Amino acid sequence: MKKYFVAGSLVLGASIVGASVAQAKSATCPDTTPAQIEALFTDFNNAWATKDPAKVTSLFTKEPVLLATVSNKPRTTPAEVNDYFVGFLKSSPVGKIDTSTIEIDCNTASRLGTWTVTLTDAKTGAKTDVKARYSFLYRYEDGAWKIDHLHSSMMPEK
């Protein structure tokens, strides 16, 4: 299934049709605040803390896209997302949002900005801060906000 987002509306001459469209939209669009979208990152960070790849993977949609900081391979299935986190969670990642911009549409939302991910070397206990840019794109799926697309890339400048 391809994913498309269409912005805009179709204007029809009959006002009754316009009212029906407005009612249909309000019935299918969840009431969502920026604070609720911000809380999704806390859920993500808490899932990381469990070190359970399945818990992290459960936060993604059925058709996710993960473009991770430390992997060249795009992950586009739940199994591939899970496989990535099997290795990545061994470094005990902890994320901290540095900057954030949130936009909310009907059944999609985005949170974009910069973050710092602290990784811990399992053998030495040494911690490393990775400064990166991120894009979380969320989709409202099966009654909950899920990560549809996550992209993270290290900052190009020191």
TrEMBL record:
<dbReference type="InterPro" id="IPR027843">
    <property type="entry name" value="DUF4440"/>
</dbReference>
<protein>
    <submittedName>
        <fullName>Uncharacterized protein (TIGR02246 family)</fullName>
    </submittedName>
</protein>
<feature type="signal peptide">
    <location>
        <begin position="1"/>
        <end position="24"/>
    </location>
</feature>
<dbReference type="InterPro" id="IPR032710">
    <property type="entry name" value="NTF2-like_dom_sf"/>
</dbReference>
<keyword id="KW-0732">Signal</keyword>
<feature type="domain" description="DUF4440">
    <location>
        <begin position="37"/>
        <end position="147"/>
    </location>
</feature>
<dbReference type="InterPro" id="IPR011944">
    <property type="entry name" value="Steroid_delta5-4_isomerase"/>
</dbReference>
<dbReference type="Pfam" id="PF14534">
    <property type="entry name" value="DUF4440"/>
</dbReference>
